[in-house]
Amino acid sequence: MIFIKSSIISLSKTDETYSMNESCFTDIFLTTNGTYDYTVLESLEPSSNICGEMNFQILGEKNAFVALFSGNDDSEPLYEIVFGIQDMYSTIRKGKGGLDITGYLSSYDVFFPSQGIAWKNFTIIWNNGSIFAKTLHFHMSWSDNLPLSVKKIAITTAGSATAEWHFNTEVSIPDECNIPDQQTTTTVVGSTQENQVCTCPCSRVPNSKWLYLKNLNLTLDEIRVILTDELEDLRKNLTIDKTNTSAYLRTKISAPDNRPSAKSIGAVGVLFLVTIAVLIFGSDIINLFKAAQQLYKR
Q1: Mind telling me which residue stretches traverse the membrane in this protein (predicted)?
Q2: Taking the model in full, what pTM does it have?
Q3: Is 250:242 a contact under the CB 8 Å cutoff?
Q4: pLDDT at 218
């Protein structure tokens, strides 16, 4: 099941005056059920087949897959970015690999299911065959000498693991990626005229709550007043109590260590402490017993 929510808003600056221009921020919510069948995100189509960047969230426990298709489905070559195979392993690879962990890139526990299920933030960047993926606490990268064109993005989970997904931005172009503008050529009475082609998919969005601001010239302060409630909601939604993070909770929990060597060292330590206590208190008990006998004889 996929739920899509779209808003249109962007700011451009001309002589210290800001105007609202059409741009698109797409929210996609969906659930995957662990069948390892990819769901293509048709409304999150990359604007370039060379490079891109996307940010998203996952609410799950393990086995989360993101695919970058070179064609229309997973029957054609693809890149697969996997988070939390068998609760722990993550990797980037070319082609479908399922739950195979051969050549994994990270053994960091991404989802921490033992600490409770919570939304985790992820970022994936690809640039001409080089792929970089990260979360708050770890990152991994991988390069392909024969890069694929990325035409579609798809997601799934495997091993009967379910997950909820939230994609809250468009696929953007990384700063280090230079994409040539697409052009069309129009013949005008014996001359050739080149026209820039807009590739923004938001032209298909018919309406939005911000559309009435599109042609208004507003100062930055005026825009801030209009967006006060929206910005406050974003601040509340993005603020995290550090005492509820998994990193903080782990500092308060003593992790078990079941290795025989650890148990042996612990047993020796306990025996040492008990022996000292017996020697100290044992001598006092003997003296106390003798003093009690003398009092009794009197």
Answers
A1: 265-289
A2: 0.54
A3: no
A4: 75
